[in-house]
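Before relying on records like the one below, remember that each one covers exactly one chain. Contacts with other chains, cofactors or solvent are not represented anywhere in the record.
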Amino acid sequence: MEERLKETLLESAVQYRGRIINVRQDRVRTPAGKDAFREVVEHPGAVAILALDGEGKVVLLQQYRHPIGRVIWEIPAGKLEPGEDPLRCGQRELAEEACLAGENWELLTAIYTTPGFCDEKIYLYRVTGLSEDRSCSTEEDEAVVVCRVPLEQAREMIRRGEIVDAKTIVALHLA
């Protein structure tokens, strides 16, 4: 890392504590020696799952997202619980959101969604060997429609602007 680019933390104060995020304001010293303020959204991290069936179809969800006011296409995903292993989180979320279990799990990468103001890190997994999870029960505050789409069709949906979710786009390109 280029040390000459690093900012020095001088002060930090939490402005808001929420159920999913915290927001803090940091005072930093820039490499040029000036003091500046940075607003930081603290997020516990998440896992997203690119689930591929034996026919080369990817599992996509249609889900309403309140912050953007619309229904979008996404791969199954969910928030990490404190201290939770990302693989275990992925297995839990695939069962909760798509009623599926997977046999072969591979970590594709981990991405920072918006590092300019948020520390959220999402672990992206590819899973194959899918089977139905008969013990699944979806969360009461989530309404989703589960679909299976040929991988190339999903990539075409990106090109047409139908898939706009960043984690889904990255995962589909890595597939």
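The mean pLDDT is 95.
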